[in-house]
Specification:
The longest helix is centred in the first third of the chain and has 28 residues. This protein has one domain: Glycerol uptake facilitator protein (Up-down Bundle), CATH 1.20.1080. The chain contains four helices and no strands. The chain is about 80% helix and about 0% strand.
């Protein structure tokens, strides 16, 4: 698979994990009777599950730099691709957090 596709998959998955998971935290704080705190855990679990199903065949669905490092240390992931994955995951996380900040101001 092309490295660009892998990078885009990692960035998209991390973006959605941060954006949707973070949104659930904001909803839980603002509307605790409508969105109870266990909904945050359910949301994070659901998002990661859906992203693994949707993007796992492209990039392996790490979505977390620690997971990428663990796979590389276990020799189940090429060490040469660590930096690409980390950059993509950080970019996706920053974009997700930025989108949350924009929406929080609205």
């Amino acid at each position: 698979m092309m490295l660009a596709a892998k990078a885009l998959a990692e960035m998209s998955g991390t973006f959605l994990l941060i954006f949707v998971g973070g949104s659930s935290i904001l909803l839980s704080e603002k509307y605790p009777h409508f969105f109870p705190s266990f909904g945050v855990a359910v949301t994070f679990g659901s998002v990661i599950c859906l992203m693994i199903l949707a993007l796992g065949h492209i990039s392996g669905a790490h979505f977390n730099p620690a997971v990428t490092l663990a796979f590389a240390v276990a020799k189940r992931f090429p060490a040469a691709q660590i930096w690409l994955y980390w950059a993509s995951q950080c970019a996706g996380g920053i974009l997700g957090a930025g989108a949350l900040l924009l929406l929080r101001r609205v």
